[in-house]
Structures are given as structure tokens and as C-alpha cells.
Amino acid sequence: MKFTDDQIADIGEEIIKVLKTVYDPEIPVDIYELGLVYDVQISDDADVKIVMTLTTPNCPVAETLPQEVKDKVAEVENVKSVDLELTFEPSWNKDMMSEEAKFELGML
């Protein structure tokens, strides 16, 4: 089944809502506001590809966090499949955080 652009946009919004429920255990800010999600691509068939990173390659949740993201996004209505790519290029830095995240962490 092919989805319309509007349906794809709705799926994208739902995915972002779900990403905002996933937290880095060391920082009380969700991974979306932290800027750990580099890209979310959704095909016409609702196959989702997420490119994300971690705050550090040795992050204690390097094993579990990507799986949590994959599992939660897979539960979004109409999502057919989720392909998650973990990358450390470019490496994450504090400048990638949203203003909201910086504010919450007292950096503004």
C-alpha cells in the first residue's frame, strides 16, 4: 500500500512523538531534543530508516538504546519496517542539542 504525502507526514509526526519518549539515561533530555537523531526517512510504503548516534561510542546504553528506538518506532501505526543505522560521523556534540535541551540542562 502506498501512502500519500499527508499520511507520510502524519507517520513522521508520530515517530517524532515516540522518539521524544526515549531518553539518554545519563541526561534528563530525550534523544530527539538532544540531537541524537540525524535523519528519519519514510518511504511511500512506510518503511522507516532512522540514522542516529549516541552521546559517546562507549555510551552504557550502546546496546539497548538503538533497540529501544527501533522497537518503539515499529509500534507506530502504519509503520511497515524500521531500519536503524547507528553512526558516529559526525560525532555528537552539545551544539546539536535543541535550545529546549540546552535550557533544561542549564546551558543557556
TrEMBL record:
The chain positions of domain MIP18 family-like read 13-83
Name of the protein in its database record: SUF system Fe-S cluster assembly protein
Report any Pfam family annotated for this entry: FeS_assembly_P
Q: Which residues form the signal peptide?
A: none
- Name the InterPro entries on file: Fe-S_Maturation_MIP18, FSCA_dom_sf, MIP18-like, SUF_FeS_clus_asmbl-assoc
